Amino acid sequence: xxNLRMRALTTKPPSASSSSTPxxxxxxxxxxxxxxxxxxxxxxxxxDEPPQGDxxxxxxxxxxxxxxxxxxxRRYLGQVSLAMLALGLGMYTVSLGGEWTxxxxxxxxxxxxxxxxxRWGRTVSRFNGxxxxxxxxxxxxxxxxxxxxxxxxxxTLLLSLDDLLVTSTWDRQYGWRTAKRPGVDYFxxxxxxxxxxxxxxxxxxxTATPIVEKLDPYSFHIAYKLFRDATRSDNGRPxxxxxxxxxxxxxxxxxxTDPEHxxxxxxxxxxxxxxxxxxxxxxxxxxxxxxxSIAIYRPPDVxxxxxxxxxxxxxxxxxxxxxxxxxxxxxxxxxxSKGLSDGGFxxxxxxxxxxxNSPVPPTYLEQKRKEAQMIYRxxxxxxxxxxxxxxxxxxxxxxxxxxEMSGNMLNTFGxxxxxxxxxxxxxxxGGKEEGGKA
Length: 438
What we know:
Distance between the termini: 121 Å
CATH topology of the domain at 155-319: Rossmann fold
Strand order of the largest sheet: 5-4-1-8-9
Shape: extended
Radius of gyration: 45 Å
Low-confidence stretches: 4-10, 15-21, 347-356, 425-438
CATH architecture of the domain at 155-319: 3-Layer(aba) Sandwich
Largest sheet: 5 strands, parallel
CATH class of the domain at 155-319: Alpha Beta
Helix content: 40-55%
Strand content: 5-15%
């Protein structure tokens, strides 16, 4: 009997061709065929999978309908926060369109006539003012208030740096080198008698400061220094906006070599050709007589004078004007001398020997120029005589600054690591020592 059971289990199943199922009826899904090891086979086709009822829903409850109380509170607070933010933005937008205050007009350098008068215009103006930190100078007033009379110079002269006072070149052998323009030392020292000289460059502080220290090592001639952070950005280009200067613009002259840098106030600017390192150049020194005459005659507004010379070669045109004035002065002197000699008695005969005519006296401009040149020579003699003392004082200032920086670093490190500053430790130690002695 046992042998018959084993033989029945190992009997081969009937083939598909011998099945009694008709050909036109669908074949029922085949069940897993046992393997020789007695395990069901894993071979099946996707079409044999049982269909999912109700669109594939499993009957499990959605987590959307079963939020925890913490999650519901979080969502509620988020919605409330968004609503409050939208309300705040709306109220802020409404406030942007309010009327101008005197403080705002002063800060924006506008008047009620020039400021936007509509609510939308005020809103746009105030909204754009949020981004002023990226486009406007770092200070609202670039220079401190003018000094009281007579210490304040009557006019302010703004000087660019690159290609006007110096030029920089680069080569493989020496790298970057900076050359001073011929006559720049005399230009700064002589005109500093008449002008408040301000260096206004588009370079950054850390690159321009070493150059300026070479031009004016003792800070005798350059009163103030303005760098890139004092400019206004116009489509990514630096512009020297004189409305931030804190000076009367009728008394301001600006020398530059780039028209874009002076585009905000071209009526105050003189644009000179760039100096490219040509030796023996006299373009800077040639500007001295013109600038000197303005400071001597003291016109109430320099802008009409600059406009009259706009687009001209100023040194040549001014030299013609001065020559004409000199010739007119000579003619007037000769005419006056002739009028005095009609009666047979002249001042020249009274004071001059041999009855010769007295020489033509210098003009007012020539007299003041002679005085200024004498002051320049005296100042240079004083600097040369005391150069050693100046160097000593500068070295002391550098050492004091180095000690101060070192002390600040020690204090910073001490506070970072939880200790008291060195000064406080010393004071505490001294107190204990005095207490012990007592």
